[in-house]
Specification:
mainly beta, 14-stranded mixed beta sheet, about 15% helix, elongated
């Protein structure tokens, strides 16, 4: 009897051991296959593994202003591939050192590779830092089912800093910043690189889009570099009030900044090199200041506006302390029923550099354009294009402007 009891005990222990091993195997497999849920708390760090495939990381909870919660990539960077994404629903959370490579997610389930906040609940004071996004495959050009953002914001005082974005091909902007109300969301995109994006038939592939109209975002887009970006007729699309675009460089791009559905925006201290449509303007109260325009095609383009059309009338625009290299052409585009020419375009202390340096005559160039007969260009898209060639210049030897040009030319050569 004792022998049988002993054998039974050994058998039971063996069965239990096997069960533990089996359960452990099931548990590990489930963790590998399921989403990763992280509950954030102030001052803590969650270290990601070296790589993840088809994994969604959902971060709830929050850090604090003095002790953010950090989600950190392993070693150099954690690589997320396939149907992978990160969604943040709390505040004071930092995501850093993560690479997204050739991802394809279902937009009905997840709108972005990194989504901060949701349509119902905003998330604030979060940071995305030192992350890379790259795509080398192909997407159907006009397919909306394969669309998704790379980063999307719902919230205030969020930051994207020191990130690189390359090769996006599917529909929707690289970064979309939602904006609601009139108090200002104050999100910032800084020190990032956007590069090597091909044109697509369906467009809708801006590098950065702010809002959808009827809001004041106060978003800041500062010190970013855009290279070989052709995804959309608007590389930066400002559809909100109070946007500041400062210190950026646009090199060999299809377009630069479009002030589309907002007022009181600032485009200051930027450099546009070989960029076909550097600045396009509709709305009122904008300031275009201290930029260098070095484009063979155009300088500043205004939209005709009016009641019943999709563009606001242009008025009360300040254009000051800019340098135009090669030529100064002001263009006006007219679509559908928009028929109101720009007015109140005040140009002061601007310069043209060709074979020498010239100061551009000051005045209300809205009024100047009203009195000119522009060159008309027919376009296949139904938009009417008018070019106003400005010729009222006087020679100057302004030393500050010459130094500014020298600095720009040195940077151009080194880049």
């Amino acid at each position: 009897m004792k022998r049988l009891a002993k054998e039974s005990l050994v058998a039971n222990l063996a069965i239990k051991a096997a069960s533990v091993i089996f359960l452990a195997f099931v548990s590990i497999s489930a963790v590998m296959a399921d989403d990763i849920h992280i509950n954030a708390a102030p001052g803590q760090v969650y270290n990601l593994p070296a790589s993840l495939n088809d994994t969604h990381i959902i971060i709830t909870g929050s850090g604090s202003s003095g002790a953010p919660f950090i989600v950190a990539g392993a070693g150099g960077k954690t690589t997320l591939r396939g149907n992978s994404s990160i969604i943040v629903t709390g505040d004071f959370i930092t995501i850093r050192n993560v690479s997204f490579v050739n991802n394809q997610i279902n937009y009905r389930d997840y709108e972005a590779l990194i989504q901060i906040g949701t349509k119902k609940n905003s998330a604030n004071n979060n940071t995305i830092s030192n992350c890379d996004f790259q795509y080398t495959g192909t997407f159907p050009d006009m397919d909306v089912k394969s669309q998704f953002y790379w980063i999307e914001f719902f919230g205030k005082t969020n930051l994207v800093d020191k990130c690189t974005f390359e090769g996006k091909q599917n529909r929707l902007p690289v970064i979309h910043v939602n904006s609601k109300g009139w108090t200002g969301d104050n999100n910032t995109i800084s020190n990032c690189i956007f590069k090597n994006v091909k044109s697509r038939k369906g467009e809708a592939l801006e590098a950065i889009r702010i809002g959808f109209g009827n809001s004041r975002s106060n978003c800041k887009i500062i010190n970013n570099n855009f290279f070989n970006y052709f995804g959309d007729a608007e590389t930066i699309s400002c559809k909100s009030n109070g946007v500041i675009v400062s210190g950026n460089t646009f090199t060999d791009c299809r377009s630069g900044v479009s002030l589309r559905l907002g007022d009181s925006c600032q485009i200051i201290n930027n450099k546009f090199t070989n960029t076909v449509w550097p600045v396009r303007i509709s709305g009122t109260g904008h300031v275009i200041s201290n930029n260098v325009f070095d484009s063979p095609a155009s300088s500043i383009t205004f939209m005709k506006g009016g009641n019943g059309c999709s563009y606001k009338a242009v008025d009360n625009i300040t254009v000051n302390d800019n340098v135009f290299v090669g030529k100064l052409d002001l263009k006006v585009l007219q679509s559908s029923d928009c028929d109101e020419l720009p007015k109140g375009v005040l140009m002061r202390n601007n310069f043209l550099y060709t074979n020498g340096l010239y100061k551009i005559a000051e005045g209300d160039y809205g009024s100047v354009m009203h009195g000119m007969s522009p060159a008309f260009k027919a376009r296949t898209d139904g938009v009417k294009e008018f070019k106003y060639s400005m010729k009222n210049f006087s020679p100057t030897t302004d030393s500050k402007i010459m130094q500014k040009l020298k600095t720009y030319q040195n940077l151009k050569i080194n880049n």
